[in-house]
């Protein structure tokens, strides 16, 4: 029939207990897998519903390219020794453990390793370029068009992990990323997430292969957006003229932010 359009498939959720995601890395937290999410807006809405029912946890979503994000997470975890176990050492807070981390009971080991390597925001400044030529990946572009940046409608699966932490930044331990030399590493993304939450009310809610997602309880006022834009522009090695003004206009009235933590 001419003009007939296929109805979008309904969004479905599958618990990890029912079907564990088959990924390169090992997930240490419980959660659900969402199928057929049509947009970034729907991802945020689902995240909000899942988070509202779990006040004692932080819900962490995957964002762009789950397969690649899982691959670099696995290698990044290994490279930064986040799954190293220090048993029976009174100088460490890590519980005794026989070896490879594989269950939710092992999550405190990973979290403790992340916290032990903590750095401050100065370890982030000047490491990233505002954009890479031809990639349309500058902060203004990706936040103006998150659908093009993330392509959520192309993702076959989006995972939502239920992370047993109070701080949104600490949820990074469930899906640490940043493997390549020019990327922010897990300790640096943790510092960034701590800062954005403490200073701008933006809590980490998602990690993908290239992007971090943050959200806040209320939209940014013009003054709040101006302060945030100044903070963001101060992180890059080559912030162009007029960038702060463009970001301020874009972020005013918004309650979310995308941040590219990779070189490209």
Description of the molecule:
The chain has 264 residues and is α+β, with helices and mostly antiparallel strands. It has one domain (12-219). The chain has helices at residues 40-52, 66-79, 107-116, 139-144, 146-150, 186-200, 222-233, 243-251, and strands spanning 12-15, 30-35, 58-62, 157-163, 203-207, 211-215, 256-260. It has a 7-stranded mixed beta sheet, sandwiched between helices. Helix 7 (222-233) packs across helix 8 (243-251). The radius of gyration is 19 Å and the shape is globular.
Key terms:
32% helix; alpha+beta; 264 residues; single chain; seven-stranded mixed beta sheet; globular
Trace the largest sheet across and list its strands.
1-2-4-3-5-6-7
Q: Which range does the strand content fall in?
A: 5-15%
- Helix proportion range: 25-40%
Order of helices and strands: EEHEHHHHEHEEHHE
What coarse outline follows from CA principal-axis ratios? globular
Structural class: alpha+beta
* Largest sheet entry: 7 strands, mixed
The tally of beta strands, per DSSP, is: 7
Computed CA radius of gyration, to the nearest angstrom: 19 Å
Distance between the termini: 44 Å
Q: Outline the low-pLDDT stretches.
A: none
Give a short summary of the structure.
This protein has helices at 40-52, 66-79, 107-116, 139-144, 146-150, 186-200, 222-233, 243-251, and strands at 12-15, 30-35, 58-62, 157-163, 203-207, 211-215, 256-260. It is built from eight helices and seven strands, in the order ββαβααααβαββααβ.
């Amino acid at each position: 029939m001419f003009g007939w359009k296929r109805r979008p498939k309904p969004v479905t959720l599958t618990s990890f207990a029912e079907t564990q995601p088959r990924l390169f890395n090992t997930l240490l937290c419980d959660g659900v897998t969402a199928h057929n999410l049509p947009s970034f807006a729907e991802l945020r809405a689902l995240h909000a519903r899942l988070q509202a029912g779990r006040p004692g946890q932080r819900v962490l979503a995957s964002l762009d390219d789950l397969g690649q994000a899982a691959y670099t997470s696995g290698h990044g975890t290994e490279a930064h020794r986040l799954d190293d176990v220090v048993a029976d050492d009174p100088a460490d807070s890590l519980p005794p453990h026989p070896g490879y981390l594989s269950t939710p009971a092992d999550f405190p080991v990973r979290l403790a390793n992340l916290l032990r390597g903590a750095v401050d925001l100065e370890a982030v400044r000047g490491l990233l370029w505002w954009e890479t030529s031809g990639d349309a990946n500058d902060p203004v572009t990706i936040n103006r068009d998150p659908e093009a940046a993330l392509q959520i409608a192309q993702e076959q699966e989006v995972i939502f992990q239920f992370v047993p932490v109070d701080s949104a930044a600490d949820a990074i331990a469930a899906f640490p990323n940043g493997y390549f030399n020019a990327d922010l590493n897990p300790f640096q993304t943790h510092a960034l997430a701590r800062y954005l939450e403490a200073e701008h009310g933006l809590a980490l809610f998602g990690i993908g292969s290239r992007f971090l997602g943050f959200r806040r309880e209320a939209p940014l006022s013009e003054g709040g957006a101006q302060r945030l834009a100044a903070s963001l522009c101060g992180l890059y090695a080559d912030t162009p003229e007029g960038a702060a003004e463009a970001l301020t206009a874009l972020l005013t009235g918004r309650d979310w932010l995308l941040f590219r933590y990779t070189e490209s």
